[in-house]
Amino acid sequence: MAVLPRFVVKLIDCVIYQLLANSCYKAAKKVRQYGFLFTNPSLKTPNQHPSFYPHVSKCSLQNRASQTLVCDLNGALLSSSKNYSFFPYFMLVAFEGGSLFRAIILLLSWPILCLLDWDAKFKAMIFISFCGLPTKNMASVSSAVLPKFFLDNLNLHAFEVFQATGSRIVFTSVPRVMVEGFLRNYLNVNDVIGTELQTFGRYYTGLVSENGLLVKHKALIEYFGDKKPDIGIGSPNLHDHLFISLCKEAYVVSKEDNKGQPTPTSTVISRQDYPKPLIFHDGRLAFLPTPFASVCTFLWIPFGVLLAIYRICIGSFLPYKMGLFLSHWSGLRITLKGYTEASTEGTQKRILFVCSHRTLLDPVVLSASVGKPLVAATYSVSRFSEIISPIKTVRLTRDREKDGAEMQKLLSEGDLVVCPEGTTCREPYLLRFSPLFAELSDEIVPVGVKTWVSMFYGTTASGLKWLDPIMFLMNPRASYDMVVLPKLPKEMTCGGGGKSSYEVANYVQRQLGDVLGFECTKLTRKDKYLMLAGNSGLVAPT
Q: GO molecular function, one example (predicted)?
């Protein structure tokens, strides 16, 4: 029995010896390779030492429109106070483009990845995230998921310099397919030079091309030849020093940017400064999946499923007030403002509640909040969502005449809830309102809806829509805030005021936009699904 412990100790000793020997060898090799930087004056820029460059905030923004800037997305344009080696973004690819199983494998490999050098770590993350991944899945993640997280972490100082220049070239060791869509569509870069991946048919093999990971300084020399770019921005490490030393001016983005700042997000651009509005995005994760956050998420999922079942049960079988109390106790906060029974009295007709649309649960939460059963008319709801719904739901067909007749019938039987946007929107924007509701009744009550989630989004464009309500209810903490506006004045309706249905729809949209602080757009449901999923967004009734 004593042989086994000795064998384990010897095995551990051997592994540590090999890792240290390999690391020391690579370190010596890199020092030898890059050592000439400190002795070759031809590679030094005037008044600059290769091991030190001014912070990017010191770069003047004046008269830069005709100049060329080169930089990397990782470590330069993206702010990060932790050195995760792009791990959270590979986790997004693995989880959103692959599967939960792939994401767990990537997470379990993280302790081992920490023992590897940078090149080996990066190649390992690429292999785990991409091996067997369909190319169409990566295209969807690149265009619909990653841009949101890239925008949330754009470094303010680097972005200001980036925007001031006329020509922008990004060199990155990150797989080009992960970043090119964002860089071209949101930052208007002229070219993206990144690591290329091998494919087999319609799938990635997980291997990089024959050229290996992109070596930025070599790629820059190959791209520009003898010409030097005007500005180079990089991180304060040896690899980037070599890269930006080939530019006329060089600046660094320090990892210590947030030290001494009042908030950790002080060097990240705000939503108002986004180069392009982020109206639509997809994916289930509502946070950047760092290693620690990913561990918490995967440990939470079994409990989240049980919590979702609990919340469904109390919403379906308990009285409204008790259900709301227990929902609040479970971490789901629901608030309703502006609604009183008197606000909907004084008419023999049924009330038509017109809601802004955040999740499939909007009509359910409104029904529970007002304390009476409502009927919901909605588009593209799955059969599973209809089954678990505690209120009556009717699926519309998108045939104007049939839908109008169906909603008119439902309205004659009781109060009705409609969401004229036709689809959900996560960000503070309102899509164009379909005018059909204005032709049904003059008893219109607008309802503004805001939601917040801590872990999972309860909407998707390309995923399994029947999971939408489950994912929302799995959140450890979430909130639903509703504001009921006064009933529309008669002079602003079709019957009483002679307004067209389009005028009424636009009026209601503006009213809800003002009370919620949302921006009104003319975008439609079709625009959303074409952007995010490349389809019309119809859901099969299964």
A: glycerol-3-phosphate 2-O-acyltransferase activity
